[in-house]
Design brief:
The chain has 70 residues and is an all-beta fold. Helix content is 0%, strand content 43%. The strands form 3 sheets. Strands 4-3-7 form a 3-stranded antiparallel beta sheet, with no helix packed on it. A two-stranded antiparallel ribbon has the order 1-6.
């Protein structure tokens, strides 16, 4: 997604199906990890609040905890 420097972005999973346990991974344009979140939005849902220092392209991976190798 395209993000603007200084703007705040709330990225979250909600209303999960039974058995779902999400993980969010946020990456810079060069695919360097920025942050990850598991279970930060209550229950098994995930939440990242992100304010980029630089405008540009960022990438988000949403996956199930049970298939992540964690």
């Amino acid at each position: 997604f395209s993000a603007t420097a200084g703007a705040s972005y709330r990225i979250e999973t909600l209303n999960l199906a039974t058995g779902a346990d999400t993980v969010l991974d946020l990456y810079q344009q060069d695919l360097t990890p920025i942050t990850s979140n598991d279970d930060g939005n209550g229950g098994l849902a995930s939440l990242i609040v992100f304010t980029p220092a630089a405008s540009g392209q960022y990438y988000l991976k949403v996956h199930n905890y049970w298939n992540s190798g964690d």
